[in-house]
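Progress note, sequence design subtask.
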C-alpha cells in the first residue's frame, strides 16, 4: 500500500520500499555530501581552536581550563620609578638593571612584577 502526501507542488510517496530507496539516493547526492563535509570541516575548526587554547585534545573537557590563571605578585614596580623614560630617545638599560636588582631582593617573599607603561623603550643588553 502506498500513501501519497501532497505538500504544495511536491508529492511524497510513503512506503517502506520507497524509504529504502530514498535514503541512499539522498545521501549520495553531491549537494548533500558537500554540505556534510562542509559542516564537518567547520566543526573541526572550532575543535582545533579550542585545542590550541586549552592545550591537547580537550573535546570532553568543556568547562575546564588547562592553563592556570596567572596570579599577580605581592609587590609591583613601575619602570618609571627607576628612572625609565619611554620617549624613544632615552636609553633605559640602567633603569631596567635597577628594577631587576630590586625585584631579585624580593625573591623569598614571592617576588615582584615590573610594569612597563606604553611607549618606546630603548634598551641595551641587560
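Output:
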Amino acid at each position: 500500500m502506498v500513501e501519497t502526501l501532497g505538500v504544495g507542488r511536491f508529492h511524497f510517496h510513503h512506503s517502506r520500499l520507497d524509504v529504502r530507496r530514498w535514503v541512499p539516493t539522498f545521501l549520495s547526492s553531491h549537494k548533500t555530501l558537500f554540505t556534510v563535509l562542509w559542516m564537518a570541516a567547520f566543526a573541526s575548526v572550532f575543535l582545533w581552536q579550542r585545542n590550541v587554547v586549552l592545550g591537547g585534545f580537550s573535546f570532553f573537557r568543556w568547562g575546564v581550563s588547562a592553563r592556570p590563571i596567572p596570579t599577580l605578585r605581592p609587590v609591583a614596580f613601575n619602570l618609571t620609578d627607576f628612572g625609565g623614560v619611554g620617549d624613544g630617545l632615552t636609553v633605559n638599560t640602567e633603569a631596567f638593571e635597577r628594577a631587576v636588582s630590586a625585584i631579585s631582593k624580593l625573591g623569598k617573599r614571592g617576588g615582584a612584577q615590573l610594569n612597563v607603561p606604553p611607549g618606546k623603550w630603548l634598551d641595551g643588553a641587560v
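Residues 30-54 form the longest helix (25 residues). Work on this subtask will continue into the next period as scheduled.
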